[in-house]
Amino acid sequence: MSNYQRPSHRQQSELIIKNSRFITTVAPTPDKTSADAFVQQLREEHPSANHNCWAYVAGSPDDSRHWGCSDDGEPKGTAGRPMLNVLSHSGLGDISVVVTRYFGGIKLGTGGLVRAYSQAVREGLDILDLENVVAKTPVRISADFSMTGQLEYLLGQFDVNITQRDWQAQLLIEGLIETSKLEDFQQALQPYPAITLSKCE
C-alpha cells in the first residue's frame, strides 16, 4: 500500500442535464462499513429521488477488493460502473460518491446516462478538499527483556505507533509503522538477533 489522498470532509455539487437534477455527494469513508452507512444516509436524505446511484473505493486505491458500485434502478451498467471508473482512475482512496438523480421528464438514453453520471462524479471530484493518508504497515515485534532499551530507542527513531505491549516470556509489541520506513527499520534491527520483526496480517 502506498500513500494516497482522500476527501477531508463531505462535499456536494449539482448538475442539471436535460431537466434532470444530479446531486453529487462525496465523503471520506475508510472502510466498507462506513461506505454502506454513507449510502444509506443519502437514501434517507433524498427519499423522493428517482435514484441514489453510488460507488466507493474503501481504503487504499490500489486494493480493488474494497471497491463497490450500484446502478440503483438505472439501466444496468449506466451509473455505478461509470462512476467507479472515474473514481478508480482518480487515485483517491477512502472515498464514497452518491449521485442522487431527480428525473426531469426527458430520457437520456444509455449513452447519455453513462456520460451524465461520469460527468457528475468528475465535477464532484474537481471541487474536493483533500488530505494526505500515510500508508502504514502493522508489525509484531518480540525481544528479549535485555533488549528493551535498544528496542525502545529504535521504535522512537522510526516513529512506530505502538498499539499493544505485552510482557510474557519476552517483550511483545504490536504497532504501526509508515510503510516507506519498514525496510530501513528491518535493516536497523539486523544487528540484534534477540529482536524479531514480522508483519501482521
Automatic annotation (TrEMBL):
InterPro entries: EFG_III/V, Impact, Impact_N, Impact_N_sf, Impact_YigZ-like, Ribosomal_Su5_D2-typ_SF, UPF0029_Impact_CS. One of its GO terms (biological process) is regulation of translational initiation. GO terms for cellular component: cytoplasm. GO terms for molecular function: anion binding; guanyl ribonucleotide binding; ribonucleoside triphosphate phosphatase activity. PROSITE patterns: UPF0029. It comes from the Bacteria. Pfam families: Impact_N (PF01205). Residues 18-124 form the Impact N-terminal domain. Signal peptide: none annotated. Belongs to the IMPACT family. This is YigZ family protein. It comes from Pontibacterium sinense.
